[in-house]
Amino acid sequence: MRTTKTLRSRRGALLAGTAVVATAVSMSSVAFGQTKFSGPTEPQRKGWAHFPIKPQPSKAAPNVLLIMTDDVGYGASSTFGGAINTRTLDALAHDGLRYIAFHNTGMCSPTRAALLTGRNHHALNGGAIANLARDLDGFTSVIPDSAATVARVLGDAGYNTAMFGKNHNTPEWETSELGPFKRWPTGLGVDYFAGFNEAWANQFAQELVENRNQISPPHDDPSYTFDRDVGNHLIAWLRKQHTLSPDRPFFVYPALGSPHTPHQALADWIAKYNGKFDEGWDALRKEIFERQKALGVIPADAHLTPRPSALPAWDSLKPDDKKVAARMMEVYAAQLAHSDYQIGRVIDELRRTGQLDNTLVIFIEGDNGGGGAGDESGDRRAGGRGRSIR
Q1: Which of 9, 175, 255, 331 could form a disulfide with 68 if both were Cys (CB 3.0 to 4.6 A apart)?
Q2: Active site residue 168
Q3: Domain annotation covers residue 168
Q4: Angle subtended by helix axes 226-244 and 319-352, to nearest 10
């Protein structure tokens, strides 16, 4: 997993720590009997004696957009020499900084918990992914009260905060509609959440959780994808925030569930990659390796490691097996490219409203490297759920 960060013109100081969000409250004229009372409105007024005053970040404080994708290898995106077109990440890397060293836990939930709190995952009881919690010290999946999230810290400092996409840090037994909600995103410092509380999302038939409410996907829209639905909610929230609270910065954490299994994409997106992987993985890994050298993301004198023994030589496969393997990669590529496109819509929205120049964008392409849920014959764990290849 590697990180790309772009910091535009205004460089506000980020507050360290963790936070709970305070939404701006506006009171217009309120009738008290026959008397009109003009209540307080943001920004805060000097001389208030009784109204509580919320923290107000400095005018130089930047917006923060923290992006994370799910299960993406270092050699997947075009930004780092891969064969999958990630135009949004390419553009951010071109205008900002490209990082080639990023430490992660090798697992989903622990990496995300550490990222959001700045603490070692074992201190967060994240010794394993949330679905594999055990009654062992450091493995319960229960984030302790002593570890606040960056959303809570920034929210307490006056930011508006929101999270979109994958939340994999709520204990599995607390994810029903009855909660408890203390360790849901809205209980961890997030003002608004739209996404899912599980390990993976079905792009065609996934329930959207909006704050605490489950929303079923449409059943009559053949072009529906969950990532696009999440992107729509994100853009709608940005517009509300910019309209109702333009004087406050925001912290937004989009963590789309792609391209984690099940690998799913619409036919028109898959068509963009038809035939692109027919040469097979042996030839492709050599091409990616050379592009990474040219980009400088690996040393120029690096040597390509031998193909893992568990993976057969491409030339040893039967023709039909080659077609299946190439098709699976086309679907994976389409899913990642489609996810990147949704983030691009968010960047375009910030550019349209003039907010991008004061937004710190941190893009983490992959929470823990490429996923290993399947093998060369297909995804055995989740491939049967939904339309994985279409």
Answers
A1: 255
A2: yes
A3: yes
A4: 10
302's CB contacts (< 8 A; 6+ apart) are: 289, 293
Domain span at 160: 2-8+55-365
Q: Determine, yes or no, domain membership for 17.
A: no
Total number of domains constituting the chain: 1
Contact 177, 214 (CB under 8 A): yes
Asked whether residue 82 carries a pLDDT value surpassing 80, the answer given is yes
Half-sphere exposure of 137 (CA within 13 A, CB side): 0
Tokens 């909610």 identify what position?
Answer: 233
pLDDT-based confidence at residue 47 (cuts at 50, 70, 90)? confident
DSSP string, 273-319: TTTTTTT-HHHHHHHHHHHHHHHTSS-TT--PPPPPTTSPPGGGS-H
Task: Note if 260 is an active site residue.
Answer: no
> What does the pLDDT look like over 184-214, one tens digit per residue?
999 999 999 999 999 999 999 999 999 999 9
Asked, as a colleague might, if the bond just before 218 is cis with ω within 30 of 0, I would say no
Question: Which listed residue (121, 168, 263, 338) is catalytic?
Answer: 168
Reported as a pLDDT band with limits 50, 70 and 90, residue 8 is: very low
232 within some domain:
yes
CATH of residue 345: 3.40.720.10
